[in-house]
Specification:
heterodimer, A: about 150 residues, alpha+beta, Heat Shock Protein 90, five-stranded antiparallel β-sheet, 5 strands, about 30% strand, B: about 110 residues, alpha/beta, Transcription Regulator spoIIAA, five-stranded mixed β-sheet, 4 helices
Chain lengths: ~150, ~110
């Protein structure tokens, strides 16, 4: 059997509130540590997951911070590919459509933020999205260094 | 959450822990109040004890820099760890901020 092809996966369901985002980050971080993912890849994936979860809370759920809003995270490792699936039941929200941040507008105070999605897109290799029944499914993918 | 030291022309702020979506709002509020009380001071933010920062933290730093510039004052950052520095590099903000290795260098500049 080719050991590198074995898929390992963990999933957990969270409340989609800003108070839960640190717990989502910790879940991803702990799982990656259990898989001995190297520190640089780990930091990139953890940050991208934090940014994705934050955007889902703020956009798909409009920052409502309601206890009934949920975010299911599944994290998989197949060979050197890490995949993080995030499933929410909020409004249709394709994270990829958020624009690149405008630094000058931020400095003028005409716009706040927009850095998260840019970080996510840069730190991961690919972001996928699909609407499945009443759910948004956002998928983050990154090839890690096995070295 | 925000520890402050005052020198002649500067306020030095020591941030600790996580600068993420959960805590950044509170930190921004504290920094805004500080600048309101001492509008004639430059601000040095020492990030030595920041364990983790997300774009929410970056957004706060940009907002604070804008506020200070409105008062003709400067924001300087020091002691960025490699993860924090990488965020600045990825979003191409290194040139927008005055970044120093140490607090002493920030004070001397």
């Amino acid at each position: 059997m080719n050991r590198s092809a074995v898929t390992q996966k963990y999933s957990e369901k969270f409340t989609a509130t800003i108070h839960e985002v640190p717990k989502i980050k910790e879940f991803v971080e702990k799982t990656l540590k259990d898989w001995f993912v190297r520190e640089e890849d780990l930091q990139d994936i953890v940050l991208a997951s934090d940014e994705a979860a934050t955007n889902i809370v703020m956009h798909a759920y409009n920052g409502e911070n309601k206890q009934e809003n949920t975010l299911k995270i599944m994290i998989k490792k197949k060979g050197n590919l890490i995949e993080i699936d995030m499933e929410d039941t909020g409004l249709t929200f394709d994270i990829r459509t958020l624009p690149k941040p405008d630094i000058q507008l931020n400095l003028k105070g005409q716009k706040r933020g927009g850095f998260g999605v840019f970080l996510m897109k840069t730190l991961m290799d690919k972001i996928n999205y699909k609407r499945k029944k009443d759910c948004n499914v956002t998928v983050l993918l990154k090839k890690i260094n096995d070295g | 959450m925000v520890k402050v030291k005052e020198t002649n022309g500067n306020l030095i702020v020591y941030l600790k822990g996580r600068l993420d979506v959960h805590l950044s709002g509170e930190i921004e509020k504290d920094l805004n109040q500080l600048i309101e009380k001492k509008p004639d001071k430059d601000l040095i933010i020492n990030l030595l004890d920041i364990e983790y920062m997300s774009s929410s933290g970056l957004r706060v730093l940009v907002a604070i820099m804008r506020l200070l510039k409105g008062n003709n004052k400067n924001l300087k950052l020091c002691h960025l760890n490699s993860a924090v520095r990488k965020i600045f590099e990825v979003v191409e903000l290194m040139d927008m901020f005055d970044i120093y290795e140490t607090e002493e260098e920030a004070l001397k500049s």
